[in-house]
Design goal:
The chain is an alpha+beta fold. The protein folds into three domains: about 55 residues; about 80 residues, no CATH class; about 100 residues, Transferase(Phosphotransferase) domain 1 (Transferase(Phosphotransferase), domain 1). Helices cover about 25% and strands about 25% of the residues. The strands form four sheets. Strands 1-2-3-4 form a four-stranded antiparallel β-sheet, with no helix packed on it. The protein has a three-stranded antiparallel β-sheet with strand order 5-7-6, with helices on one face. Helix 4 packs antiparallel against helix 5. The longest helix is centred in the middle third of the chain and has 20 residues. It is globular, with a radius of gyration of 19 Å. It starts with a strand and ends with a helix. The model has no long low-confidence stretch (mean pLDDT about 90).
C-alpha cells in the first residue's frame, strides 16, 4: 500500500480559507485498488495513517465507459504526450458517478476541439481506453505554464500573448463553449513561445449550470452559469497579471 496523492483541504470561512483536514489517496498496486483516508492533523511534519480507517474508492464506477463516438489515443503514444487523469482527492463517498460524468463531459468537449483545432487551444490526441473504460485524456505536452514563463525573466510580448489568449477564448465561444477557468496555470507555452489554453474540466456549453467552479481570484465569484463574461473577466485578470509583471 502506498500514498499516491495527498493534500491539505481548506474551506471558506468568512473572507478567508481555513484548514479543515488532510486527505490521502492510497493504492494497493497488486489489486489495482484505491482507498482514501482523512485526518484533522496537518500534513507537515508528518501524519500517521490509520490503515483500519481506510475507505475504498469504487474505481469501476469512477472510470466512465468508453463511447465509440470518442477518439482513442494513438498506440504507441508520441513522445511529447501528457495524460490527464482526474485527481482522486475530489472523491467523497457516493460521488464516483459524478466524477465519472465529469471525465466523460470533458472528453466530449475535447472531441469538439479536436474537430475544430485552433493554434491557441491544446491539441487533444484522444482517450486512453482500457477494458472498455476511459482511463485518461491524452494531449500534446507543453513545456511550461504562463507563470513559469513569466518567472524565466525572458522578454515577453504581452500584446502578442493577450491577442493569442483572446483568440483562443473567442474560438471556444464561437463553438458555443465557455471555459470557465481561465487562469495562468491553465495557459501553457509551446516551444515557439505560443500561449495555449488547456484544462477543459470546467468547460460547459454556454448557458449551462456550472459544476466545478473556477479558480478563486481569477474567476467571477459565485458564478452559477456558463457565460462569456466568465472568461472575459478571467482574461482581464490575466491582462493585469501580465502588465504588472512584464513591463
Amino acid at each position: 500500500m502506498e500514498i499516491c496523492e495527498q493534500s491539505e483541504i481548506f474551506v471558506e470561512e468568512g473572507d478567508d480559507y481555513v484548514f479543515d483536514h488532510t486527505k490521502f489517496i492510497l493504492q494497493e498496486k497488486e489489486k489495482g485498488s484505491y482507498f482514501y483516508s482523512e485526518t484533522k492533523d496537518r500534513l507537515y511534519p508528518s501524519v500517521p495513517i490509520d490503515i483500519n480507517k481506510l475507505r475504498p474508492i469504487p474505481m469501476r464506477d469512477f472510470w466512465p465507459p468508453f463511447d465509440r463516438s470518442l477518439t482513442r489515443a494513438p498506440d504507441p503514444l508520441p513522445g511529447n504526450h501528457y495524460i490527464k487523469r482526474p485527481s482522486l482527492l475530489y472523491y467523497r463517498d457516493g460521488q464516483a458517478q459524478d466524477l465519472s460524468n465529469q471525465i466523460l463531459d470533458e472528453a466530449k468537449v475535447c472531441e469538439i476541439l479536436r474537430n475544430n483545432p485552433h493554434p491557441n487551444i491544446a491539441e487533444y490526441l484522444g482517450c486512453i481506453e482500457k477494458n472498455g473504460r476511459i482511463k485518461g485524456l491524452c494531449f500534446v505536452k507543453y513545456s511550461m505554464d504562463l507563470i513559469q514563463r513569466v518567472e524565466t525573466g525572458r522578454p515577453l510580448d504581452s500584446d502578442y500573448y493577450l491577442q493569442s489568449i483572446e483568440s483562443g477564448i473567442r474560438h471556444l465561444h464561437a463553438l458555443g463553449l465557455i471555459h470557465n477557468d481561465i487562469n495562468p496555470r491553465n495557459i501553457m507555452v509551446g516551444e515557439d513561445d505560443r500561449p495555449i489554453i488547456i484544462d477543459f474540466d470546467s468547460c460547459k456549453q454556454e448557458g449551462e449550470e456550472l459544476g466545478k467552479s473556477g479558480t478563486p481570484g481569477w474567476a467571477i465569484e459565485n458564478a452559477q452559469h456558463a457565460r462569456q463574461e466568465n472568461d472575459f473577466f478571467s482574461f482581464c485578470m490575466i491582462k493585469k497579471y501580465l502588465l504588472d509583471n512584464c513591463t
